Structure formats: C-alpha cells, structure tokens
C-alpha cells in the first residue's frame, strides 16, 4: 500500500479550478461555441394526468427558422427502463413503469415533455413551441403519496393495479417495543424539495457525419450518458464522445440520463446538425428531478432512565410519476439507528407513484430522511420522559470501543467517536449559557422566544464503490492524473493534484488533472454518494505509487544503485542516499523511460500506471450540530441566529475543500428546515414553479456558520478519508427543526413539520393558545396542516 507523507494532509491549498471561474473562462454547455448549432425547446404537458390523443405541430413547423417539430411518433425512441430496483422488494420494478422519451398516449405530470421544437435561434424555437398544441382527455390525478395508497385513488398504471411500485418489510411483525416503559409516537413529513443547481440541465450534441458524435452535457455521470446515447443512436460506445464541461452544480439531480438527452441526440442525428438544449429555471423546477418526499410514522420505546429499547418506522416514499428513486426508503432503513444503540428496529417501506415530478437522489439520498426521523424521535422521547434531549442522546450513543458496529437494521459502521463530536459542538455553542438565556426569556415572557436544537448524525458514503485512475510522468516535468470521477464544484482537480504531489514529490503546479471526457478517460463511475476522495483519490494514490516504484526501479538501474539505497530528491525523482549529487529528476527519468535501451529488464517504456481501486467497504461520516433560533411569538417568524457544526469526515486532505462542502451543505439543509417546499394544488398543478414561489434562500438569510471538525480516520481506505459532501445537509435540518420546536415547547407544541415557515409556526402557536384557553393540554404530533 502506498504511504503518503503526513505533510500531504491538512494543507489548505487554494482551488486550482477557481482562476478560470473567477475570470469568466469557465466552460458550460450554454457558452460553448458550436458552429451552426440549432436550439431545442421542449413542449411540456400542462396536465398532471391525461390521455394524450395527439400533438399538433404543423403551425409551428411553418414558422420562420424552424428546422423541425418532433413527437414520440416521429422519433419512435425506446422507453427508458424503470430503475431503482430494490433488493428484497416484494414488488420488483418489472411492471409497466418505463418512461417514454417523449410522452405517448398518457402524460403523468405537469412538465412531462410531449414534443420538441428545433430552430435556428432560441427565440424562434420558443415562439414555435407556443404554437404546438396537445389534445388531452383529463384523468384524475393524485399528488399525495398517502392518498395514492388508497384503493380508490387514481392509478398511474391501471394495469399494475396499485400505485405501490416497490416495498419491503424488515422485522415488521416483531414486537420491537417490548419492555418499553414509555412509547413516543409521531408522524413526520420530510417534504419534497427541488435541487435548483446554479446551472440548469443542458446538453449539446454534434454529429460529425461519419457515424460519430460529440455530446457536451451537464451531468455527474458522463459515462452513463455516453452509453445511453450510443444505444439511442445505434452506434458503438466509442463513437460517442461525451464531455461534462464545468458543471454548475448537481446535488444528485444530474445523476439521471434524462429523456431530453436522448431526444436531442436523436434529433441531431436526424437533422445532421448540432443541437443544443438548455433548460430555463422554471422548466428545471418542473422537469429536473426533485428530492426527499417521505412521510414517516414512528414509534420509539424507552425505559424510564432514557435507555432506548426499540424503534418502528413506516416509510411512505413519494416517487413522483416515474419510480427512478424506488431504492431510497431502503437507504433510510439502513441508517435508522443513527448514532444510537437501539436493540431492535422494525421498518416498512413503500415507494409510491404520484402525478408529480419524479423524485430521485438529492444531497444525502435517503440518509437525511433517516437522521431527521431518529433525531425528532429522540426529542419526543425526551419530552415524554421529562428529560433533557442531550441526556437521552448521551445515554444511548454507540461507544468508540464498539466499532465496527452492526446496527439492528443490519448496517456495519466502520468507526466513530460520537460523544467527542457532540461535546465539541456543545462546547463551541456555549450550551449552558444558551440554556440560561432561554430560561431568562421564558421567565420574563419575552415575545422573542429562544430555541436550542441539537442533532447528531451518521451517514453512509462511497457504498463500497470502485474507481479508475491513471497517472503518467512526462519528460517536460509535468504529471497528468486521469480520473473517472466527474466534478460539479467539489474541487477534484485540486484534491487529486495534492495527492499525486504528495506521493511523487513533484510541485502541485506541475500536475494536470483530466476528467469528465470519455475520449480521454478510459472509464469512470462519476460523482455521487460523497465517494470521490475516498474511491477516486485512493485510486490516484495507488496509481501514483505504482509510477513511483517504476521510477525507483529505473533510477536504481541508471544510477547503478540498489533501490533500497535511494531516497526522494527535492522536487521529485531520486538520489543515492549519502551522495545527493548522484540523482535523477522525475523529468529525467520520464525521458529515459522512453528509450528501450535505458530500461532494465522487465520494465515497460513510460512512467505510467492505470487501474481501478476497489474500496472494500462503505464509510460512515458523523457529527453533531447545534442550532439556535429566535421565534417571534406574535408573527411566527423564525430567525436562525447561530449554527454550530462539528463534522467528522475522517482524515482531512484539504481543509478549504472540506469547509466549502460544509458551508454548501449547511445552506441546503437549513433551507429545507425553514424555507423550501415543492407544492401542488388539489388538481395536481404545481404552485412552486418559479423562484418567486419556491422559497430558496440567499446568503443574506443565513448567519455566520461556526464550524469545526474532529478527525476519526477510517480503516477502510488508504487515505483514512470519509465523505463530506452530504454531511452538513444531513445534520443541519433536524437541528434547526428541534430548535424551533424547543422554542415553542412552553405552549405545548411537541412537533411541527417542515418547512418551518412563519405561517406554519404562527398557526401552531395560535392553535396551542386556543387549547390552553380551553384548558386542553393535549397536542397533535405531525398534523397535516
């Protein structure tokens, strides 16, 4: 195993990607210069559920500049297969759930594409798209997953006989609450949210006239896109060069191979012209996959001293119109124990289709839902017992000596020091002073109530994945690193250059990182699941180590020394120990490696290595967050005044990259807690289809984030690294939710669903005051208001 010098880690190297972004030299699909490119605009369903009798495009075809109007009948593309197959599912996705690239016969959500218009300018394509008319026969729609379970609910696929497309049960019939002296129950909603990346979905496809194509696409998985484009174009995979340029954010929503990609490729091939499509912001809110959308019924049992005895969770997952995320409830099940020793866990999951935008992985993908569930449940137990929620947490934390630890849901955690992270978060927050301030405000009846929320979390990253890398030293002194990961803002070029520099001893600036181009990279799994550093980075380290050993063998041959007598030379290369004047730089070795006459027996030409690193197991980052809120009890307005995050992603390579991921994750997690929600009206029409109605906050809505780290290296990979891309999102949402409920607790409010808008908080307070006036101490947990 290649050993990295300690100086490689903890170095705050500035991102090498940033100069091109800051100087306007970033390359996105929209600003690529593609000579003669036509513009595509999709015509989308205005109905949530309807029979599509016909699509009339003759008027649009006759408009100036229009190169074509295409429907499902015109292109006759194969259906996209249903994905999200769930292991052990009682309803495998073998039904009729495949999706047409352009809707044919039935539309199932507002925003589903029914036709595409291609013209010589965006304006002309948009004008012509307005002239395309669909002939619909409306069908009854359902956008609520619980309602969709009802036997009388409208069926998206009547031939299937149910809106449940996948399900599982794990210990569901077991008496997991046996021995509990207190049982807390709740209904929690983890609301549907939109990803809203800075760059919307986009693709451009250029045919070259010889059966080959180049596709530029804003994606996290360029190789997946290449494979599917090759299928639709009827060519070999190597005939389609797919490039993900500077992708402006993904958050999981760009993991899919979208129907629009296939349509644009098919149209480009038919017209023998390059075609570009870039979605508008409103279009993205309708058609880019959404996230979360889970309703949870929870029972949690404990003894009087706060010791947990069991958990039961019933998970109802909204899939939207096409079940590409049917596996998400299983991931929630895997992580239901959180950081706690819960002896028994039972769960049931049902993935349900509705007449809404499809739901797929979104920053955390099933793990935020699990953390929100268990952290709210812990607070409910504390309320039932009259205990401090922090005491309940500490009593049940998995101790460090228990790792590797198998939870009651069957997941094996690698390593953790949960008490350490929680203690550090409370110390940084000054928890005792905060509690005193909260008590003082309550004593004097201050209308600005203070709430303190604590949440601990653990998540799963990498999912035992594998990744390709190649490393080559060149005669000019530079080193190229090729990786199968595909960044969308994380800083891979910086991180992988740091790793190669650490192994090879060459300057950081001499390393060029190549990625996201299927003509330059042999293979790659892309970027998802916070896997890039631990899987991709470990592969870079292994390949760099192989190059180093080749260089050592060559240096020993040329210097007529034993390899064990060589030591690293400054700037890369080797010198004879005790005789530094006898040395060869890596550049000189790379030059010599090109000449077969200088090579020792058994050494191939070139200083290059390639291969795939296979991570033997998943890793489990963890942490603790403390949120402090003020709630105006007269208006319901919530203001987050402090947020302290302590996250543990194992051994830290570059603190600046970690900090960037934490800040971005906090913004999205807090946004879900306080602001964001995709909503539909009773007829199935979206009412949050623009950023004037979908409340995505800006930096002005957030306080200064107070962040810190603990470092608990994992034994799973040679870097000791775990993921960080999703962690802060997972930990922040329940911390803020717990803080708001804590602020409202003097009025008997025990739970409030997300997002915690001013209206929702005001209504909860108004109802609580009415109950108090009527001397009715009961309160509702998880009301559907």
Fold and architecture overview:
This protein is an alpha+beta fold and 785 residues long. It is built from 19 helices and 28 strands. α6 (222-233) crosses α7 (259-271) and α9 packs across α10. The radius of gyration is 28 Å and the shape is globular. Residues 86-92 and 779-785 have low confidence and may be disordered.
Q: Unreliable runs, pLDDT <50, ≥5 residues? A: 86-92, 779-785
Specify the overall morphology: globular
Strand order of the largest sheet: 3-5-1-12-9-10-11
Total count of helical runs of at least 4 residues = 19
What's the helix and strand layout?
Elements: H1 18-22, E1 38-44, E2 50-56, H2 58-61, E3 66-71, H3 72-75, E4 105-107, E5 113-119, H4 122-130, E6 133-138, H5 145-148, E7 164-170, E8 182-194, E9 202-207, E10 213-217, H6 222-233, E11 240-243, H7 259-271, E12 275-278, H8 281-287, E13 290-302, E14 308-320, H9 328-334, E15 345-353, H10 367-385, H11 389-396, E16 405-406, E17 412-413, H12 418-429, H13 431-444, E18 448-458, E19 466-473, E20 479-483, H14 492-504, E21 511-514, H15 532-559, E22 566-568, E23 574-576, E24 579-584, H16 586-592, E25 607-614, E26 622-632, E27 638-648, H17 655-674, E28 705-709, H18 727-744, H19 758-773
Helix pairs in contact: 6-7, 9-10, 10-11, 10-18, 14-15, 17-18
């Amino acid at each position: 195993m290649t050993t990295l010098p300690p100086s490689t880690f903890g170095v705050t190297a500035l991102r090498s990607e940033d100069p091109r972004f800051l100087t306007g030299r970033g390359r996105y699909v929209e600003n690529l210069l593609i000579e003669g490119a036509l513009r595509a605009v999709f015509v989308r369903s205005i109905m949530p559920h309807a029979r599509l009798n016909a699509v009339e495009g003759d008027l649009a075809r006759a408009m100036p500049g229009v190169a074509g109007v295409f429907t499902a009948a015109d292109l006759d593309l194969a259906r996209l297969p249903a994905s999200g197959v769930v292991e052990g599912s009682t309803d495998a996705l073998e039904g009729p759930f495949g999706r047409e690239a352009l809707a044919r016969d039935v539309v199932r959500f507002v925003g589903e594409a029914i036709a595409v218009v291609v013209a010589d300018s965006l304006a002309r394509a948009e004008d012509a798209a307005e002239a395309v008319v669909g002939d619909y026969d409306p069908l009854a729609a359902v956008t609520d997953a619980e309602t969709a379970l009802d036997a009388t609910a409208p069926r998206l696929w009547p031939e299937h006989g149910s809106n449940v497309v996948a399900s599982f049960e794990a210990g569901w019939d077991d008496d997991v609450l046996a021995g509990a002296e207190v049982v807390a129950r709740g209904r929690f909603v983890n609301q549907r949210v939109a990803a809203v990346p800075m760059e919307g979905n986009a693709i451009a496809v250029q045919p070259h006239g010889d059966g080959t194509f180049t596709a530029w696409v804003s994606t996290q998985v360029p190789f997946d896109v290449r494979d599917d484009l090759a299928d639709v174009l009827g060519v070999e995979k190597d005939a389609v060069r797919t490039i993900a340029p500077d992708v402006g954010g993904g958050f999981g929503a760009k993991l899919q191979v979208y129907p629009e990609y296939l349509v644009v490729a098919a149209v480009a091939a038919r017209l023998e012209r390059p075609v570009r499509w870039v979605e508008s912001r409103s279009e993205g809110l309708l058609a880019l996959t959404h996230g979360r959308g889970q309703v949870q019924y929870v029972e949690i049992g404990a003894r009087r001293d706060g010791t947990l005895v069991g958990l039961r969770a019933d998970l109802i997952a909204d899939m939207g119109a096409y079940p590409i995320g049917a596996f998400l409830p299983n991931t929630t099940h895997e992580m239901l124990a959180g950081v706690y020793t819960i002896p028994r866990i039972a769960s049931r999951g049902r993935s349900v289709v509705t007449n809404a935008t499809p739901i797929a992985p979104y920053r955390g993908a099933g793990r935020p839902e699990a953390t929100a569930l268990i952290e709210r449940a812990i607070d409910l137990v504390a309320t039932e017992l009259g205990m401090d929620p922090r005491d309940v947490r500490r009593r049940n934390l998995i101790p460090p000596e228990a790792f590797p630890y198998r939870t009651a849901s069957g997941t094996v955690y690698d390593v953790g020091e949960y008490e350490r992270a929680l203690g550090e978060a409370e110390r940084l927050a000054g928890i005792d002073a905060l509690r005193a301030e909260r008590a003082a405000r309550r004593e004097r009846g201050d209308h600005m109530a203070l709430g303190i929320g604590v949440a601990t979390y653990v998540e799963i990253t990498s999912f035992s994945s594998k990744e390709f890398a190649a490393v080559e030293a060149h005669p000019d002194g530079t080193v190229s690193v090729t990786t199968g990961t595909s960044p969308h803002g994380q800083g891979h070029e910086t991180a992988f250059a740091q790793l190669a520099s650490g192994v090879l001893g060459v300057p950081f600036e001499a390393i060029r990182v190549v990625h996201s181009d299927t003509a330059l990279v042999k293979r790659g799994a892309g970027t998802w699941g916070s896997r890039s550093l631990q899987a991709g980075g470990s592969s870079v380290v292994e390949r760099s180590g192989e190059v180093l050993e080749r260089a050592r063998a060559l240096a020993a041959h040329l210097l007529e020394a034993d390899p064990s007598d060589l030591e690293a030379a400054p700037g890369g290369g080797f010198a004879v120990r005790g005789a530094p004047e006898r040395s060869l730089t890596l550049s000189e070795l790379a030059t010599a490696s090109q000449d077969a006459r200088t090579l020792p027996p058994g050494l191939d030409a070139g200083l290059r290595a390639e291969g795939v690193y296979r991570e033997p197991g998943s890793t489990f980052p963890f942490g603790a967050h403390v949120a402090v809120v003020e709630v105006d009890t007269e208006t319901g307005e919530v203001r987050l005044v402090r947020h302290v995050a302590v996250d543990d992603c194992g051994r830290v390579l570059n603190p600046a990259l970690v900090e960037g991921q934490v800040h971005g994750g906090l913004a999205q997690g807090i946004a879900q807690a306080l602001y964001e929600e995709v909503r539909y009206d009773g007829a199935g029409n979206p009412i949050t289809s623009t950023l004037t109605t979908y409340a995505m906050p800006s930096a002005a809505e957030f306080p200064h984030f107070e962040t810190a780290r603990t470092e608990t290296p994992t034994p799973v990979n040679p870097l000791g690294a775990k993921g960080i891309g999703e962690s802060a999102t997972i930990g922040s949402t329940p911390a803020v939710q717990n803080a708001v409920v804590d602020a409202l607790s003097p009025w008997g409010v025990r739970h409030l669903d997300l997002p915690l808008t001013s209206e929702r908080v005001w209504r909860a307070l108004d109802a609580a005051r009415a109950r108090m006036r009527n001397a009715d101490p009961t309160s509702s947990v998880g009301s559907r208001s």
